[in-house]
């Protein structure tokens, strides 16, 4: 990304101060003498909530280039910032209206002595916005950091126009045949586009002045006038790098009344060095293959071809007539059905079309219908976007399939992380707690970066309802509540506490934890199982559509007593008790432990089927699942002496409801707890199966799947380090470690992962029941190594086994 400077991190602010920010109203701010606050500015005579794309400009004169020129920038919904025609950045990071983020840039590297032009594209998708996008109204704000920079403070000296070329291209959900909520595509008319609007030489004399809106913004006091609760960006800028398509799968054109013919496209086209032409008065279809799934901003460069109509369609894979995908490399007999953008050429030289928001694809289909002029396709590249995770961990073994699983899992995690975590990048781009808990552990173990996890924890805390529950997905302008996901949010806080040392941050979450647990406790039935639970009690997609619930993923007993839902509550109480005890709330911790014990005892008494040797899903004992027994192991509702037998049963018996890719994370954790980690690797066959059908990321659920990229399915990357290599914290903050490798049939394993104090690395060679190798720990970190029930103390540095 372009050079920028980031200031105060939200995660470091005191909790009481953060609360004040969220309800700030206009009031005098502390500022140095001569400091002027900027105003939000808006386009004149434009409804604040209507769809529209707007261009703001301001010219400034400088006698010399400053060494530093710092400004703070934000907009509703989004902005893209240019200085002297060069892109500087885009944002802001998504939040809600009471947590509206601004970005900080040093513009000095982009400035010249003399005349300079600052230009900003701002857009509001209106009713066509993604569900993840909040909005108060269309507006833009820039605030200079000091007296010299205040010349750029937004006020009525800025100019603005609405770009008439843009119209929304709503998704045809009937054609897509699925739930897709990432906003509309773009329909752009090149003939009415104000080309060059961001360049210094563009003539903006006819542009009207912007209108000031509301009271001056209070960036320096981190407040606002109540419309947007302004806060500094809590995460780094996103990664931005050019990526190229790999190959052409179809390239044909048909002239009016003629026969189809091939279009010759040289491989140099992919690097932008050899264009190709579409003849006049014909229709052309070119199917490009990236060879792997990716996110990015496509950039299509065209010349000539006046009034030529171009459509870009993006897909994870081609589909048959039943809207199902085949092997992801397959195209024969299949159709391109997907998200679309459209552009109409004005016939000029080297026009560039780039959508407002990023797209996700493996395949891009370019469809062109020319009029009387030929159209030159100069290039089609893209700019990758994603949270700037760095892969600092690694895993190697003598099993080559695990290397492919590692690579694919990390790509899955990368594509599901941007300004927030995403459940999936193509269909929803929403941050769900159930997904995010798993994603956060991946982030800690593979990248060692906890910033997006911090942000996610705070997002869900900010989403809290008056009843006490957090929302299931946030930020999201369409509220949704999944009570089990609120429990997973508590687990996220516990995970953070176990892996990072930040007591102030964790303690700020305790009141919300109490609210979540109080909601569930209030709904316990007299028999200590759950009573009637409102909203959507999703557990796993293995449960089909339930007419009573009017939705899928819900096991029996959500209204009358479910061992699954009850035991998840019991497990969460145990985790919360650890937190409360650590922070000095012993009485609360005792209550949570006693309540957990009551629930576990009730489940054991009411749902244990002695004939099958398993927990049933409900006291009626008519249905059985892996899920109930997984929670039975994780909570010790199933006594420790019987846990291995139960886990062996649920992995071999076929008449149980089986966990899908998502919930297998909890199966893996149960195997680890019961000392059965050696059985983890055979459980990866479904992941090997996904690779066998050409997936380059891991899917939402078994075929036929909706989403080819769903971060909850990337959990094996975490387990390869935490279970196979056996690297886990032994005390809060990862202060000490416990390394219990589960090598299964592997003969050789090497792994490393980032730790707050440095790096942990291990190397194991196994011959029958003996293991040799080493464990290296960072300075100041100690721990224990366990093999075949025997423990050995570990010290900082290299420990030879």
Give me a quick take on this structure:
By secondary structure, this protein is an alpha+beta fold.
Structure, explained:
- With 801 residues, the protein is of the alpha+beta class.
- It has four domains: 198 residues, Galactose-binding domain-like (Jelly Rolls), CATH 2.60.120.260; 147 residues, Galactose-binding domain-like (Jelly Rolls, Sandwich); 156 residues, Glycosyltransferase; 77 residues, Maltose phosphorylase, domain 3, CATH 2.60.420.10.
- 23% of the residues lie in helices and 27% in strands.
- The protein is built from 14 helices and 34 strands.
- The strands form seven sheets. Strands 10, 11, 14, 15, 16, 17, 18, 19, 20, 21, 22 and 23 form a twelve-stranded mixed beta sheet that branches. A five-stranded antiparallel beta sheet has the order 5-4-7-2-9, with no helix packed on it.
- Helix 4 runs parallel beside helix 6 and helix 5 runs antiparallel to helix 6.
- The longest helix has 22 residues.
- The chain is globular, with a radius of gyration of 28 Å.
- The two termini are 44 Å apart.
- The relative contact order is 0.09.
- The N terminus is likely disordered.
């Amino acid at each position: 990304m372009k050079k920028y400077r980031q200031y105060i991190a939200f995660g470091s602010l005191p909790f009481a101060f953060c609360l004040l920010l969220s309800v700030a109203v206009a009031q005098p701010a502390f500022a140095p003498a001569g400091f002027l606050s900027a105003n939000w500015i808006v386009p004149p005579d434009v409804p604040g909530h209507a769809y529209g794309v707007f261009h703001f400009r301001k010219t400034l004169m400088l006698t010399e280039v400053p060494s530093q020129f710092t400004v703070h920038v934000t907009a509703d919904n989004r902005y893209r910032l240019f200085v002297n025609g060069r892109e500087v950045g885009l944002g802001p990071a998504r939040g809600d209206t009471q947590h509206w983020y601004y970005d900080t840039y040093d513009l000095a590297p982009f400035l010249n002595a003399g005349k300079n032009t600052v230009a900003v594209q701002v857009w509001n998708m209106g009713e066509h916005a993604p569900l993840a996008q909040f909005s108060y109204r269309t507006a833009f704000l820039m605030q200079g950091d000091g007296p010299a920079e205040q010349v750029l403070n937004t006020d009525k000296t800025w100019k603005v126009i609405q770009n008439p070329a843009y119209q929304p291209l709503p998704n045809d959900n009937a054609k897509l045949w699925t739930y897709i909520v990432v906003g509309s595509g773009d329909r752009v008319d090149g003939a009415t586009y104000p080309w060059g609007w961001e360049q210094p030489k563009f003539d903006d004399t006819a542009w009207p002045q912007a209108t000031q809106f509301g009271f001056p913004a209070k960036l320096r006091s981190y407040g606002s006038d109540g419309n947007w609760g302004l806060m500094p960006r809590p995460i780094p800028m996103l990664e931005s790098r050019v990526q190229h398509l790999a190959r052409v799968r179809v390239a044909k054109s048909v002239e009016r009344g003629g026969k189809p013919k091939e279009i010759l496209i040289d491989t140099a086209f992919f690097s932008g060095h050899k264009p190709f032409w579409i003849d006049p008065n014909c229709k052309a279809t070119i199917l490009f293959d990236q060879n792997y799934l990716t996110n990015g901003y496509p950039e299509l460069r065209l010349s000539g071809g006046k009034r030529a109509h171009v459509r870009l369609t993006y897909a994870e894979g081609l589909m048959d007539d039943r809207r199902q995908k085949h092997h992801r490399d397959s195209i024969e007999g299949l159709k391109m059905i997907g998200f679309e953008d459209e552009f109409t050429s004005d016939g000029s030289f080297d026009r560039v079309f780039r959508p407002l928001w990023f797209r996700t694809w493996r395949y891009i289909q370019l469809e062109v219908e020319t009029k009387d002029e030929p159209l030159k396709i100069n290039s089609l590249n893209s700019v990758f976007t994603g949270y700037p995770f760095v892969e600092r961990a690694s895993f190697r073994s003598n099993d080559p399939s695990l290397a492919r699983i590692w690579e694919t899992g990390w790509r899955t995690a990368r594509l599901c992380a941007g300004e927030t975590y995403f459940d999936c990048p193509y269909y929803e781009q929403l941050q769900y707690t159930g997904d995010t808990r798993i994603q956060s552990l991946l982030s800690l173990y593979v990248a060692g970066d906890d910033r997006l996890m911090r942000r996610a924890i705070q997002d869900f805390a900010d989403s809290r309802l008056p009843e006490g529950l957090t929302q299931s997905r946030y930020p999201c302008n369409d509220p949704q509540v999944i009570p089990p996901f609120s429990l997973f949010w508590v687990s996220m806080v516990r995970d953070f506490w176990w892996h990072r040392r930040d007591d102030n941050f964790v303690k700020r979450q305790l009141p919300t934890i109490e609210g979540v647990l109080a909601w569930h406790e209030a709904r316990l039935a007299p028999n200590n199982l759950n009573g009637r639970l409102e909203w959507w009690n999703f557990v796993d997609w293995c449960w089909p559509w339930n007419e009573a619930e009017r939705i899928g993923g819900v096991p029996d007993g959500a209204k009358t007593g479910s061992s699954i839902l009850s035991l998840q509550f019991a497990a969460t109480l145990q985790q919360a008790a650890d937190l409360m005890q650590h922070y000095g709330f012993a009485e609360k911790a005792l209550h949570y432990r006693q309540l957990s014990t009551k629930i576990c005892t009730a489940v054991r008494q009411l749902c244990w089927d002695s004939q099958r040797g398993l927990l049933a899903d409900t006291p009626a004992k008519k249905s059985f699942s892996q899920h109930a027994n997984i929670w039975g192991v994780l909570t010790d509702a199933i006594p420790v002496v019987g846990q291995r037998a139960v886990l062996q049963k649920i992995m071999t018996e076929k008449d149980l409801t089986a966990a899908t890719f998502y919930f297998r994370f909890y199966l893996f954790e149960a195997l680890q707890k019961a000392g059965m980690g050696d059985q983890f690797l055979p459980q990866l066959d479904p992941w090997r199966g996904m690779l066998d059908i050409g997936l380059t990321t891991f899917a939402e659920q078994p075929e036929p799947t909706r989403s080819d990229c769903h971060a909850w399915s990337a959990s094996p990357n975490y387990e390869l380090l935490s279970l196979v290599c056996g690297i886990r914290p032994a005390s809060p903050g990862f202060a000490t470690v416990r390394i219990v490798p589960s090598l299964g049939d592997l003969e050789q394993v090497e792994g490393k992962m980032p730790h707050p104090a440095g790096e942990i690395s291990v190397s194991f060679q196994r011959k029958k029941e003996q293991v040799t190798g080493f464990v290296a720990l960072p300075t100041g970190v100690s721990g224990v190594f366990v093999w075949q029930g025997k423990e050995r103390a570990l010290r900082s540095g290299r420990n030879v086994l």
